[in-house]
Amino acid sequence: MHNSSNSVMSFLRGFNGPQTLGNSSKFWIGWFIVVALLILLPFFVSRYQVITASNFIISAILALSLCLIWGYCGILSLGQAAFYCIGGYAYGIVAMNLIGTHGNTNLAILTGIFAPAIFAGLLGALMFYRRLKGVYIAILLLVTSLLLGLFMRQTADPSYTIGAAYLGGMNGLSPATASDPSLPSIIVGLGSTTFEFDGRGREFYWLVLGVGIAVYLGLRWIVNSSFGYVLVAIREDSERTETFGYDVRLVQLGVFCLSAALAGLAGTLYTAWGTYIHPDGFSVAANILVVIWVAVGGRKDLTSVVVSTILLSWISIQLAAWGNSSLLVLGCILVVAMLVAPEGIVSSIGGWFGKLTRRRPEENQVRHSMELRLTEKSR
After folding, report:
1. Average pLDDT over every residue of 215-244
2. What angle do CA 368, 369, 372 make, to 5 degrees?
3. Which fold has domain 48-347?
4. Which of 74, 91, 106, 120 could share a disulfide with 112, CB 3.0–4.6 Å?
5. Coil/strand/helix, residue 189
């Protein structure tokens, strides 16, 4: 039993480090309990709640993509939702054209991930090798997202078809003709066997949960590796990091493409979840919403971002009856969070709790030594 616990902790050691909160055995025990509860969730809640939970996890993956590029590399992206939508549209277009031939969405999933990464590579090369920094990158990415959204809103003409896919303008992606296939959910093909994950079913929820866990653990491993230290060094002082011989622009470009790929993965899952994708995803509101998720939680910690994204997404659902007022409320939460805890509310609470739990053994040891001294004096 002792050897098995040591082997588990040695395995988890690669995911621990100073770049993330929650590195103790107590944290990981709690983490495994939460994961177990999430796995069992579909057995205890309604179908609607399972569908909503799938969307929450997809949002968390999108937020993690921004946390990587902003929190750890210091590059604020106000166009993260653009990569999300590029991935969604790429998945939908390829899936609608190939589902009849291949019977699966394998290639469509890969396209949804790599299309935004390639776009980010082209755009990032222009930004980073032109030495753009700070607010200029944020503005350029936001403008790019708005231009893409403007173009997609003007694709209502029937000529805007790509094979069996009709871009549809404000109506969203749809079949080009009545005989063309509809936008499918995830269908994974392994040889002659296929596994279908309906966006409204339990299986899709478990798929999204598995992907979300893999993304979270993968990013924990990256940011706590030597590459993660380079990212943090660039965030703190890119010029000084360059004097140590690191190709800062190449590192920035690489992490920017990885961030876009993760956003595209989230967009792919979202499109498969609702079998729908719409140009409004390129809007200012969609991009700012992701920033709110990350900033309120704490942009420098992955766990905090996941927690804040799920909590704020749940609040948005509760405020849905208020219409557009929900974004205003979330904006107010962001302002309060920046005033009260500039490093993020969730990460601040997590850091305080971590210090408290570390102090307890020390306090117990001091109390025990004092009791021994009192006992000796009484004798």
Report:
1. 93
2. 90
3. ABC transporter involved in vitamin B12 uptake, BtuC (1.10.3470)
4. 91
5. strand
Domain residues of the chain, as ranges?
A: 48-347
Cβ-Cβ contacts under 8 Å for 131 (sequence gap 6 or more): none
Using CA atoms, how far residue 87 sits from 51, 52, 80, 107, 249, in Å, is 21, 21, 11, 12, 24
Partners of residue 188 on adjacent β-strands: 195
With 70 as the cut, is the pLDDT of residue 171 above it? yes
* Burial grade of 79 (CB within 10 A; 0-12, 13-18, 19 or more): buried
Amino acid (1-letter code) at residue 158: P
| Residue that the structure tokens 């790929």 belong to | 261
Cross-sheet strand order for the sheet of 174-175:
161-162, 165-166, 174-175
Angle CA(50)–CA(56)–CA(58) in degrees, nearest 5?
A: 105
Structure tokens at 287: 């991009």
- Spatial neighbors of 309 by CB under 8 A, at least 6 apart, are 56, 59, 60, 63, 293, 294, 297
Tokens 């939702």 found at: 81
Instruction: Check if the beta carbon of residue 308 is closer than 8 Å to that of residue 345.
Output: yes
Residue 208 sits at the vertex; the CA angle it makes with 260 and 274, to the nearest 5 degrees, is 85
CA distance 113 to 121: 13
For residue 186, the cross-strand partners are 197
How many helical (H) and strand (E) elements, i.e. helices and strands, does the chain have? 14, 5
Q: Cβ neighbours of residue 56 under 8 Å, at least 6 residues apart? A: 309, 310, 313, 314
C-alpha torsion sign, points 41, 43, 45, 48: positive
Encode pLDDT of 251-310 as tens digits.
Answer: 999 999 999 999 999 999 999 999 999 999 999 989 998 998 999 899 999 999 999 999
What is residue 225's DSSP assignment?
S
Count the residues in the chain: 379
What is the percent of the chain where pLDDT is above 70? 88
Q: How far apart are CA 306 and CA 63, in angstroms?
A: 7
